[in-house]
Write a structure and sequence with these properties.
The complex is a heterodimer of chains A (392) and B (365). With 392 residues, chain A is of the alpha/beta class. Chain A has 2 domains: 142 residues, Aspartate Aminotransferase, domain 1 (Alpha-Beta Complex), CATH 3.90.1150; 238 residues, Aspartate Aminotransferase, domain 2 (3-Layer(aba) Sandwich). Helices cover 41% and strands 14% of the residues of chain A. Chain B folds into 3 domains: 184 residues, 3-Layer(aba) Sandwich (Rossmann fold), CATH 3.40.50; 53 residues, Adenine nucleotide alpha hydrolases-like domains (SH3 type barrels), CATH 2.30.30.280; 81 residues, Elongation Factor Tu (Ef-tu), domain 3, CATH 2.40.30. Helices cover 24% and strands 30% of the residues of chain B. Chain B has 7 helices and 17 strands. Classes of the chains: A alpha/beta (392), B alpha/beta (365).
Chain lengths: 392, 365
């Protein structure tokens, strides 16, 4: 059976060049980068080269890159680290209702610690209202944590405007850019971003490594205390192979992002059109234009997304419903719920997220297989209005 | 999609030895096998964590490991709400009404052969398989599927399956029904499934410490545990109780009434919230009325038939005459008096190994 992977927002395979870059550090090049001797120096220079590669992708300075254990840790470090450091200044954090759990659950924890959190609502396309953001800022507000691109719908928030609002009011701006880095170009300087999270395994790098961009001069209380690594912001001997892999992944993304973005948009639109041509009662979840180039979230009405996912899996096609972290739970996606999508429509949602290894044949095969499954599932659904509408 | 050569079987995997071996046998027989496990609420958290033999999430990990070992796809179906509504609530409310509910039958009927079977058909499976010790056979002369006991007399679970109807039986496979438990364990060991030595599941899977009185008290809250009188058959008050859910018919312990002869619970007066007690011999009855009857092998005309029957999973079979009533219920006249008939339990009728049918006990007579 042909296996097709369309779940790149969950994770990506390692790019072969990334693996090649990492291998020397899993074999011979073992030194501790903090060591003064040759073994340490041999490794240290690669860590710093990686830092530069990550910085280049964001147009930041290498000294502003902190390597972490992944996207979730970066989000935790940004939110907790900034909020702890600014405790005397204020206790109010603004985020959105559609953030990744790494941000949402961290914010809920901050509430337990006595911070106040505003969760901005979104409209039916998953977009926040900037006036509402402005109105929720108080003189106690210390941090905005607003994601770049949504992991489920791909909706891209107006980061430039948010950055301007934050810098005008002198508030720190953190963005969880885990899904956006490598898919769309970004410049932390023009966007006025103070803190930016990214993750290795979402851009063809290794799992277990990520980084936090920390704008020069930003006060941050570390989560992990210990040695002086990462400018005192993240103790612990560096994950050298991971960091080198992340650097290589960022370098590759920097090189062909424009091409990839165009290619994925084309494939995605083909998939979308192919499905719409064959099926009625399919709706797009997310913003029609302001969206990550690889993400297509569709609700197939009168179908349970979970059943459709399993059918596709048994046909070798890997997709997801909601975010992978919440699999095994039947509740409709909180992101789609926040968008005001009715539960029966949200239940039928499937997320296709494409990546560099997808081909036109993959898309064609999916378009050939999927409508058949949907029609069969609908024919078993008691609520499906039936053939009349299918033809009309 | 329609050019599947293999028949697809969804197997309900609990992580135990029986369903694991059932799964292995099916892959051997050349089916395309898909494993599913039910995700049930976590009743093993907090202070009861150490009490139960297995938590449900433990069971799912074992099931997943077996599926991985057999290289079949595996999915978890979230049935937390359904389990609460259809099994646990039924269980609690049964005891509150002075009955002795049977949650395993209910779980089989509503979840395994309800929701999971529907899921399997939705996945276009040809069959659903489980690890029950029971057998299914096609009776060509009667044009019906029959339900038979599993060949291991100590493990036979046909009692829990009496609700099965023809449209369910035709879709079911019980791969280990013709094996004795020792052979099942041996196969599990030989295949290295890692489950051969797993303990048997406990009596009520969602009550980790088997203390169902505690479980009910925690669920309903103490304010709803209405106290009342303990009386004899004449209505004479002999003592007090603090909640009828703490008693089942035939129970001797926990009455707290000093007497030269031991007292036993005979029944309940729900209007007065009384527990009625008496002597051992008062527990004997001549027959029972059962309702919600499911006939797997229809008795046809209303004439009386003699059957073997069981009134509890672990009770010995006895003989009785079935007299179908006009209202669809059944009167079962025992050939010898039976002790402690408990309304709410299932009664299942047998002819040798064949399950004729069964129903829910409404009252003893």
């Amino acid at each position: 059976m042909k296996k097709i992977y369309m779940d790149y927002n969950a994770t990506t395979p390692l790019h072969p060049d990334v693996l090649d870059a990492m291998l020397p550090f899993l074999r011979g090049n073992f030194g501790n980068p903090s060591s003064i001797h040759w073994a340490g120096r041999d490794v240290k220079k690669y860590i710093e080269a990686s830092r530069e590669k990550v910085a280049n992708l964001l147009n930041g300075d290498p000294s502003e890159i902190v390597f972490t254990g992944g996207g979730s840790e970066s989000d935790n470090l940004a939110i907790k680290g900034a909020a702890f450091a600014l405790r005397e200044k204020g206790n109010h954090i603004i985020t959105t209702q559609v953030e990744h759990p790494a941000v949402l659950n961290t914010c809920e924890y901050m509430e337990e610690l006595g911070y106040e959190v505003t969760y901005l609502p979104v409209d039916h396309e998953g977009m926040i209202d900037l006036d509402e953001l402005r109105a929720s800022i108080t003189n106690r507000t210390i941090l905005l944590s607003i994601m770049y691109g949504n992991n489920e719908t791909g909706t891209i928030f107006p980061i430039e405007e948010i950055g301007r609002i934050a810098s005008d009011r002198g508030i720190l701006f953190h963005t969880d850019a885990v899904q956006a880095v490598g898919k769309t170009s970004m410049d932390v300087k023009t966007l006025n971003i103070d803190l930016l999270s990214l993750s290795g395994h979402k851009l063809y790098g290794p799992k277990g490594v990520g980084s936090l961009y920390v704008k020069k001069g930003t006060r941050l209380t570390p989560l992990i205390h210990g040695g002086h690594q990462e400018g005192g912001k993240r103790a612990g001997t560096e994950n050298t192979p991971g960091i080198v892999g992340l650097g290589k992944a960022c370098e590759i993304a920097n090189g062909d992002m424009e091409f990839q973005s165009g290619y994925l948009t084309k494939l995605r639109e083909r998939l979308h059109e192919g499905i719409m041509e064959k099926l009625d009662h399919v709706v797009l979840n997310g913003h029609p234009e302001k969206r990550l180039p690889n993400t297509l979230n569709l609700s197939f009405k009168f179908v349970e997304g979970e059943a459709l996912l399993i059918h596709l899996d048994l046909e070798g096609i890997a997709v997801s419903t909601g975010s992978a972290c919440s699999s095994g739970s039947m509740a409709p996606s909180p992101v789609l719920t926040a968008m005001g999508i009715p539960p029966e429509v949200a239940q039928g949602s499937i997320r296709f997220t494409l990546g560099r290894d997808n081909t036109e044949e993959d898309i064609q095969h999916t378009v050939d297989v999927l409508p058949n499954i949907v029609s069969k599932l609908r024919s078993m659904s008691p609520t499906y209005p039936g053939k009349r509408n299918e033809l009309g | 999609m329609s050019n599947r050569e293999k028949q697809r079987v969804v197997v309900s995997m609990s992580g135990g030895v029986d369903s694991s071996v059932a799964t292995a046998l099916l892959t051997d027989r050349g089916y395309e096998v898909v494993g599913v496990s039910m995700q049930l609420p976590d009743y093993y958290s907090g202070e009861h964590k150490e009490l139960g033999s297995y938590s449900f999430s433990d069971n799912i990990s074992h099931a997943r490991a077996v599926a991985d070992k057999l290289n079949i796809p595996f999915y978890v179906v979230n049935l937390e709400d359904e389990f609460e509504k259809k099994v646990v609530n039924y269980f609690v409310s049964g005891y509150m009404k002075g009955k002795t509910p049977n949650p395993c039958v209910m779980c089989n009927q509503k979840l395994k052969f309800g929701v999971i079977l529907a899921k399997a058909l939705e996945l276009r499976a040809d069959y659903l398989a489980t690890g029950h010790h029971a057998r299914i056979a096609w009776d060509d002369s009667r044009r019906r599927y029959l339900l038979l006991k599993g060949v291991d007399p100590n493990k036979d679970q046909s009692y829990f399956l009496f609700t099965l109807r023809q449209e369910e039986l035709r879709r079911l496979i019980f791969p280990i029904g013709d094996l004795v438990k020792n052979d099942v364990r041996k196969i599990a060991g030989d295949l290295g499934l890692g489950v051969a030595d797993r303990k048997e599941s406990q009596e009520i899977c969602f009550v980790p410490d088997n203390d169902y009185r505690r479980f009910i008290a925690e669920r309903i809250g103490t304010d709803r545990c209405k106290s009342g009188n303990i009386v004899n058959s004449e209505g004479e008050i002999l003592g007090r109780h603090n909640g009828i859910y703490k008693f089942t018919i035939g129970q001797r312990k926990g009455l707290g009434i000093p007497a030269s002869h031991p007292y036993y619970v005979l029944g309940f007066d729900l209007e007065k919230n009384n527990v009625v007690i008496g002597r051992d011999e008062d527990l004997l009855s001549e027959g029972l009325i059962a309702e919600d009857i499911n006939w797997i092998l229809s008795p046809g005309s209303k004439s009386e038939i003699t059957v073997s029957f069981k009134v509890r999973y672990r009770s010995k079979e006895a003989k009785a005459t079935i007299r179908p009533q006009d209202d669809g219920n059944v009167l079962l006249a025992f050939h010898t008096p039976q002790r402690a008939i408990t309304p709410g339990q299932a009664v299942v009728f047998y002819d040798g190994d064949v399950v004729i049918g069964g129903g829910w006990i409404r009252e003893s007579i």
